[in-house]
Specification:
Aspartate Aminotransferase, domain 1, Aspartate Aminotransferase, domain 2, 7-stranded mixed beta sheet, 2 domains
Length: about 350
């Protein structure tokens, strides 16, 4: 059995350790730390006729997304988590041998799926401030560039470009190159605006925006969605597997869109606790980078993750993102979890 040549170049995706939440404080996977409202469990528990296939494109959910974003329902596509949509996009718009432009220190699934797609990969180094270097990206775009991947806010650094910065950048990208904008963490940033998202989609026909429900509490349901013009979505539906999102995930996502007070609480709690963690860590002499996500990015002593794990606190070493082993990504937890974290950091770093 012959393997694809690029398979030998692949490294498996590294996720946060899935250890028991009852024993550990999990600050390593950028999950929502708040328990889900009972209404969501009640709605999914009422599902019946599960012996039958459901409406595969998620029409009911797409209609609710249409209402939220003030765009047509045919401008949305659902995915089994955001990873599937990355894979579908490359399958549809990046022919073998064409180039995918990917920042050096970002979400690893872009590179993994590009390699599987047998795409050429152009890695772009970050600025000294660990920001995605838009000027370097522009300088390397050429006729064989099929797609440019941008994560905003960036995972794992948290740096966030304004919509104005992005609009200026997008206007310089030729239409022949697709722009894949991953906004998994956009709700936690200060720039978040559905109106500005809508304006970008309407202005740039080569733009595809990725969103996920995972960070708002539905990580275990595996559901995300993409936004673009209807022509792009129609082409993506040609490569989308039938029934790719299950009924439970669709129902949970529909319900989550109704739970506006809960979503607002998740965002507000995150911002408050993110500010608390940043201030406390800076006071401890830790280098903290400004973040627009539900996490913070820091530089501290090597082995910090191992020392915290001894106290049953899990954080994410950023080595798998291409950084040296003294960089870490830490999910913003609950108020109680964050104070336990700071208490242990004081003990370790004293």
């Amino acid at each position: 059995m012959d393997l694809k040549k690029n398979l030998t170049l692949l490294k498996p995706y590294v996720a946060g350790k899935p250890l028991s939440e009852k024993e550990y404080i999990k600050l390593n996977a950028n999950e929502c730390p708040l328990p889900l409202p009972q209404k969501l469990y009640q709605k999914t528990a009422k599902l019946r006729s599960l012996n039958r296939y459901h409406e595969g494109s998620g029409l009911a959910l797409r209609k609710k997304l249409s209402s939220l974003h003030k765009l047509d329902e045919n401008q949305f596509i659902l995915g089994n988590g955001s990873g599937e949509l990355i894979q579908l996009y490359l399958s549809a718009f990046c022919e073998k041998g064409k180039e995918a432009v990917i920042p050096e220190n970002t979400f690893s699934l872009y590179e993994i799926y590009a390699l599987l797609n047998e795409s050429k990969i152009e890695k772009i180094s970050m600025t000294p401030a660990l920001e995605i270097d838009l000027d370097k990206i522009l300088a390397c775009v050429h006729s064989d560039t099929a797609v440019i991947f941008l994560c905003n806010p960036n995972n794992p650094t948290g740096h966030t470009y304004s919509y104005e910065n992005l609009e200026s950048f997008f206007s310089k990208i030729p239409f022949t190159a697709g722009i894949f904008l991953d906004e998994a963490y956009i709700h936690f940033s200060d720039i978040y605006s559905e109106e500005k998202t809508k304006n970008l989609i309407q202005k740039f026909k080569n733009l595809f925006i990725l969103r996920t429900f995972s960070k708002m509490g539905l990580a275990g349901f595996r559901i995300g969605y993409g936004i673009s013009n209807s022509e792009t979505i129609e082409l993506l539906n040609r490569v989308r597997p039938p029934f790719n999102t299950n009924r439970y995930a669709q129902e949970a996502a529909e319900t989550m869109l109704e739970l506006k007070e809960f979503s607002l609480k998740v965002i507000q709690e995150n911002k408050k606790e993110r500010d608390f963690l940043s201030k406390q860590m800076q006071d401890l002499g830790i280098k903290v980078f400004s973040s627009g996500g539900n996490f913070i990015f820091i530089q501290s002593r090597p082995g910090l993750d191992k020392l915290l794990e001894e106290s049953k606190i899990l954080i994410r070493n950023a080595y798998s993102f291409g950084f040296s082993s003294d960089y870490y990504r830490i999910t913003v937890g609950t108020q109680k979890e964050n104070r336990i974290l700071i208490k242990n950091l004081r003990r370790i770093l004293k």
